[in-house]
Design brief:
By secondary structure, this protein is mainly β. 7% of the residues lie in helices and 55% in strands. The protein is built from two helices and nine strands. It has helices at residues 3-10, 113-116; strands at 15-23, 33-41, 52-60, 67-78, 83-93, 101-111, 125-135, 140-150, 159-169. It has a nine-stranded antiparallel sheet with strand order 1-2-3-4-5-6-7-8-9. The protein is globular and about 50 Å long. The model has no long low-confidence stretch (mean pLDDT 91).
């Protein structure tokens, strides 16, 4: 039941991180911010991965209580990560605060050679995403989503399309 404590004190395989951020307004802390995160992970015998670290810069700006542009840049060195580099940007549009949200996201990423080695087929992967969060009530939302991945790192296909529908209930 308490195996987690055993691994904490006996295996010495830790994940640590530090994050520093700033926001322009306490009211919009989750919507209008910039932060930097550094993390480190020890080698894992269970996952058979080497130790590694990463750095992430993330920025989101809430404009006129309608627009939510964002940008993220991430770098990872080892640790069994899927991607070594990732750069994402996009924008959300929310006609009424707390209401429906429509969004577009774009991403470029570079799969991690240390993780995939010779299995890697494409060195640069691109992703586009469209979504709509439909607010059915104050506590219930549905989010249809469409994604297109070009040059997926581990696939011989030139592109993969994905569609999903997510439901959320806030209690």
């Amino acid at each position: 039941m308490f195996d987690g404590f055993n691994t904490l004190f006996n295996q010495n395989e830790y994940f640590t991180n530090i994050e520093v951020g700033i926001t322009s307004n306490k009211k919009y802390m989750l919507l209008d911010n910039m932060h930097v995160t550094y993390w480190h992970r020890d080698a894992s015998s269970l996952q058979q991965t080497q130790q590694g670290w990463g750095l992430v810069l993330s920025m989101t700006k809430y404009i006129q209580e309608k627009y939510l542009p964002f940008a993220r840049v991430a770098y990872t060195k080892n640790a069994g990560s899927f991607m070594e580099w990732a750069v994402s940007t996009g924008i959300g549009y929310q006609p009424k605060p707390g209401g429906h949200l429509f969004g577009l996201g774009l991403n470029w990423s570079q799969p991690n050679l240390d993780t995939y080695g010779n299995s890697l087929i494409h060195e640069n992967q691109y992703l586009g995403e469209l979504f709509a969060r439909i607010q059915l009530s104050k506590r219930i939302a549905l989010t249809p989503n469409a994604q297109m991945i070009l040059n997926p790192g581990l696939s011989t296909q030139d592109g993969i399309s994905m569609f999903s529908l997510r439901g959320r209930v806030n209690i």
